[in-house]
Write a structure and sequence with these properties.
288 residues, three-stranded antiparallel β-sheet, alpha+beta, Phosphorylase Kinase, domain 1, 2 domains, Transferase(Phosphotransferase), domain 1, six-stranded antiparallel β-sheet, 18% strand
């Protein structure tokens, strides 16, 4: 399987290896029967991976009722066996959103990210409507169809963690730590809203170029969430107050300093207010 130009199953000639993981590899293949270039996820024949593959295929079968293009979900072409390995056949897409950001820019403008987020939200909405949640939403699992096409068209991929909403058990912790909702990290009951939490984190990451809640353990992420939630609301409130179009209602610099966003600062530098009556007014400087 490691050799390029080897054949998977009866008709999939391997042209390149697109990625790998503990489960196996994703290969770029040419189907000699159709001459189509596809992406084949090759899952190793170990028992734990086989169970995961069977569950993923079950989810993909349920997703077949959705239109791939309209719903922004990768097209699934079926599966086949290569010796003891299970091979899942998908349409070939260009690159992950993560790679797109790393290769072009670290963040997107509002105009660029709006259609991307709309498409991802569309995919989640359709999935949730048929009782499936993704459970591992992140930029790595959002594929750009064609990096040269604008606005960007994206599709959701990788349903290895996806589960029917009705069978998810409390206490299950799946997905990638940075994008896990707090209720999952705390072992509390959860539902498809965990996907919406991940979508919100992706929104922030696309806009700022930074992962909002980094952490190597659940405690770290929860701590970031607790510290950041109130600050976020106050920060947004401050931005809105400074960007008010009505000049009469736009806050003054002194009101900025008095805003609750700064209330948690442990050290304050108090500056006297200049007073023209006491000689402390504004001075006009001239070049020498």
């Amino acid at each position: 399987m490691e050799e390029r130009r080897s054949t998977l199953g009866s008709c999939h000639v391997v042209e390149d290896i697109l990625g790998d993981g503990s489960f196996g590899v994703v290969a770029k293949c040419r189907n000699t029967k159709t001459n189509n270039i596809v992406a084949v996820k090759v899952i190793r024949g170990k028992e734990c991976f086989v169970h995961s593959a069977i569950a993923e295929i079950a989810v993909l079968r349920r997703l077949q009722c959705l239109d791939s293009d309209t719903c922004s979900i990768v097209q699934w072409n079926g599966f086949f066996f290569d010796k003891e390995n299970i091979c899942i056949d998908f349409e070939l897409l260009d690159q992950s959103l993560r790679d797109y950001l790393d290769g072009t820019k670290s963040r997107l403008s509002v105009g660029e990210l709006r259609p991307v987020l709309h498409q991802v939200a569309t995919a989640l909405s359709h999935m949730h409507s048929i009782g499936i949640m993704h459970m591992d939403l992140k930029p790595d699992n959002i594929m750009v169809v064609d990096r040269h096409q604008h606005p960007l068209k994206v599709k959701l991929i990788d349903f290895g963690m996806a589960h029917p909403i009705s069978v998810v058990k409390q206490g299950a912790c799946m997905g990638t730590m940075y994008y896990c909702a707090p209720e999952m990290l705390l072992g509390a009951p959860f539902n498809e809203c965990i996907d919406v939490w991940a979508l919100g984190l992706i929104m922030a990451e696309l806009a700022t170029g930074c992962i909002l809640y980094p952490g190597q353990a659940p405690y770290d992420v929860i701590r970031f969430v607790e510290d950041d939630q109130s600050d976020q609301k106050l920060f947004i409130s401050l931005i809105k107050s400074t960007l008010t179009l009505d000049v009469c209602n736009r806050i003054k610099a002194r009101e900025v300093l008095e805003h609750q966003f700064f209330a948690s600062m442990s050290l304050w530098v108090t500056l006297p207010v200049p007073s023209p009556d006491k000689g402390g007014g504004l001075r006009q400087f001239h070049p020498t």
